[in-house]
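Progress note, project year one: complex with calcium ion.
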Amino acid sequence: MKKISIILCCLLGWQSQAQNTQISPDGNVKVTFELNPSGKPFYKIWYKNQEVIKQSYMGLELKNTTDLIADFKVIKEKKSTFDETWQPVWGEESHIRNHYNELLVSLHQKTSDRFMNIRFRVYNDGVGFRYEFPEQKHLTYFTVVEEWTEFAMTGDHTAWWIVGDYDTQEYDYTESKLSQIRLLNQGAINHNASQTPFSRTGVQTSLMMKTDSGLYINLHEAALVDYSCMHLNLNDSNFVFQSHLTPDATGDKAHLQAPCHTPWRTIMVSDDARNILASRLILNLNDPCAYEDTSWIKPVKYIGVWWEMISGKSSWAYTNELPSIQLDKVDYTKLKTNGKHAANNQNVRKYIDFAAQHGFDQVLVEGWNVGWEDWFGHKKDYVFDFVTPYPDFDLKALNEYAHSKGVKLMMHHETSSSVRNYERHMHKAYQLMNDYGYNAVKSGYVGDIVPRGEHHYGQWLVNHYLYAVTEAAKYKIMVNAHEAVRPTGLCRTYPNLIGNESARGTEFESFGGNKPFHTTVLPFTRLQGGPMDYTPGIFETQIWNVNPDNGSYARSTLAKQLALYLTMYSPLQMAADLPENYSKYLDAFQFIKDVPVDWQKSIYLEAEPGRYITVARKDKHSNDWYIGCTANENGHTSKLKLNFLDKNKKYEATIYADAKNAHYKNNPKAYTITKRKVDANTTLTLVAKEGGGYAVSIKEIK
Ligand code: NOJ
Ligand code: CA
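Model obtained:
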């Protein structure tokens, strides 16, 4: 047999070295690594003996020097096993197991006398691999022209995708076959303040797919640090995805200095969609917590002076009197207010009172600081100073008032993407937060990046977002960044990164609406990298009842808005609607008041991307459980066995469900609330109507 294969190899001119294989701890996932006759590295992946990734080449094209693509020889391979359970500061569960088998392949490139390692980690639910560049003589500083990592699919899978773009992820998802991406690309692009689509077959990660044989595959990356964000470009003639990095202003994709490594490229796979949601592969591939003391990092439930601006009822800006603002020249005290400025003393006090009355931790106030009159669209450099309040916002008095009621104000730093300006002011801005007792900031990156020509997802910006988080940590400040690069699990290492937007959030319900299936896709895609500040809780889904000039409506029933607090996991949850809208539905609002934002355990009960997601979570600090289900436009019926409840305990369930005649379009606010006793033997049959959902609180009877 050996003889035959040697002869075959010679006939084919194949000088391949031994194939290196590693399998997952349960044996279901297998990865192989090989070199082709030209010394080009490639890998393949199987799940339960089904091919998941066909032969896929790996390598990097470098600037003005030999590429790291071919001419390699394997000089060493090392296999190892790792098994550890760690405790996140906050999360979907209190303990996370990190169990993998590793394959480390050390390569030598003959012509250039360079070394490169490829490290694979094989988990029960997928694979991560990265390129590593050890310290060496002939590779020190180098510039990446492109990373050429392939992900070769086995067929024309169904995908849930958004358009590949260097500057925004605020797109609606499209469900289609891979072969239809090119055709549907143009229709999938909606306007954004900054956007740079790069190809008709370009898509973003995390990309969710399903094969005809029922395998669920997810492609993403983990631990994106000092490198640019990876997109995927599809060759639709053979279904091979090619990595496509975000360029900098000069077109280069990454500037590296050995020793260093790339982020992990991740491939999750399962024959059960629930396992994709329950996977902790991305978090596990990130480094452990970098901070010694994390006692200052706390989950947050908040309301905000926000939706009234998003809906167009009120404004961030103080005045309409000037055609443009030059911060160092304007004297706001001499200007008339426009009468719509929401961040004024009286209004903010109203929100503080409401937060205190209903037990919220914080009140976000946007539009509190000078500069909002012409804040985006001009690539303006000195747009905000992050420290000077408008004349009608008394920084000291409002913070004191909030603190006297046990509430904190949440800081807002909209950078308008003038990032150099933000870095210039950041320390004073954080210091001001310390001085007045703020411990969380929502930041934002609307519009094109300054320095001009840079992109939101390039290496320079990737470094900035992390810098903002690690500098904030020095002031014990938690960060929730909007429009920043999509997360890749860095919240494990830097848990003061308590949220990101980085996708199309609830704000778009006011800008024309999100597709009804949107929130049945996001947990499979965007949320793989970390929590999203989705800002749920819109009870008045017909926005014209908030602002008569706004004809938009949320593609959701009211009950589904409650379910989002479960299905869209985040340690930072907003109740986004106006206090007066909650006051109209206080019985349903009770669920938002009750629902925890930190969990001991999470069990995905049902899941199908783009269709429905049902999750049960146990409160981190009690024996209470909460269930949420969101459905697409066709609705969903669940039969839920509550056998996860403690066998020795009795519980009272409160079920917040769509009424029989509820529908996201024409009857969104019809809901029912029922109470019943339940235990571990109970089966609940619950219905999410079209574009609807349900939420259940299950409290222990003591
Ligand atoms: C976009 C953010 O997503 C939104 O939440 C914020 O209110 C505006 N930018 C203004 O900063
Ligand atoms: Ca946004």
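The chain has two domains: 20-285, 300-597.
The longest helix spans residues 419-436.
No further modelling is planned for this target in the current period.
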